[in-house]
Amino acid sequence: DASDIEKGTYPHYMLKEIDEQPFVMRRIIQKYQDENGQLTIAPEMIAEVINADRLYIIACGTSYHAGLVGKQLIEKWAKIPVEVHVASEFSYNMPLLSEKPLFIYISQSGETADSRAVLVQTKKLGHKAITITNVPGSTLSREADYTLLLHAGPEIAVASTKAYTAQIAVLAILATAAAKAKGIALDFDLKKELGIIANVMEMLCDAKEEMEKIAREYLSMTRNCFFIGRAVDYYVCLEGALKLKEISYIQAEGFAGGELKHGTIALIEDGTPVIALATQEHVNLSIRGNVKEVVARGANPCIISMRGLETDEDRYVIPAVHPMLTPLVSVVPLQLIAYYAALHRGCDVDKPRNLAKSVTVE
Ligand code: AGP
């Protein structure tokens, strides 16, 4: 649809694509529901998933970060072991494969050369592959045995936003469908949870002024920024840091809260911005302990937490969603903060230097 790729009243594609996320969630629900309104995946694909003894997720950049979240969902819900690999490393340093592996390629564009190189290798070894992509008919889609589409609409900005949340939503559907096929009972309705997430995403997209303020306050003068989190928040921190560095050129790094004391904390100086995510109850106290450690060394902390886990010191509180699906919402403030940081620095938000939308060379 041509109107899909117009910027309309938006100054940048990235901002438009961030705003489209609630709509994409609802479209995914629509596209993946069967005639009874249940979220499903084609039975032949699910058969491959549950017959595998291990899944190997292969991807690059933001798609790799979505894969990390997907691993957690598939292992916790469907009880299938999952490994997640950066494509460019996998092809030159292939791990020992299990007896019945299934490969899942995640690629917004479906054209990433590093991921394709692995697909060519694993096909040669006779292993089946599923591609999760936004582009029907793309190379990775054509060359895999099965395709799951993201239905996110064209993503034009180099910084991936709506594809990331679409990838996680599709992986969540895959995880629940595999659990169901294995007879594992889950105590929630994913369709309902994704509906709640779409609404929360909308509220977060309405918080642009607050995110712009955070960007101005924490990032306008800095040369670096750290993102810390534990458990699934750590994976979102990796994505938040990638967004910030690729469009604002601020050196940013995502760290597991507990790993700080093993080296990185040496970089904390007076005023160093540290953005901390606190959406997970079982690590809430420990991540807050990590915040205290960096504050004691002069850091300027910005805690983004989830309703129910918040304290007075938090800068922003996200409405509560299913605890396993928090990345779908916690990433939105980080996308917006990166956007405004880049904007304030006069950067070319949609076309950052040295980068291409899809990397078609190895
Ligand atoms: C994300 O913002 C990036 N520009 C980049 O990391 C991207 O996710 C990566 O190149 C993978 O692309 P793909 O999903 O099209 O394979």
UniProtKB/TrEMBL annotation:
Subcellular location: Cytoplasm
Active site: 357
Keywords: Aminotransferase, Cytoplasm, Glutamine amidotransferase, Repeat, Transferase
Reaction catalysis annotation: D-fructose 6-phosphate + L-glutamine = D-glucosamine 6-phosphate + L-glutamate
GO annotations of cellular component type: cytosol
EC number: 2.6.1.16
Keyword Cytoplasm belongs to the record: yes
Keyword Cytoplasm belongs to the record: yes
SIS domain: residues covered: 45-184, 214-352
GO MF, any single term: carbohydrate derivative binding
Gene Ontology biological process terms in this record: carbohydrate metabolic process; fructose 6-phosphate metabolic process; protein N-linked glycosylation; UDP-N-acetylglucosamine metabolic process
Quaternary assembly: Homodimer.
Described purpose of this protein according to its UniProt entry: Catalyzes the first step in hexosamine metabolism, converting fructose-6P into glucosamine-6P using glutamine as a nitrogen source.
Protein name (Swiss-Prot/TrEMBL): Glutamine--fructose-6-phosphate aminotransferase [isomerizing]
Protein source organism: Parageobacillus thermantarcticus
Residues of the full protein shown: 239 to 600 of 600
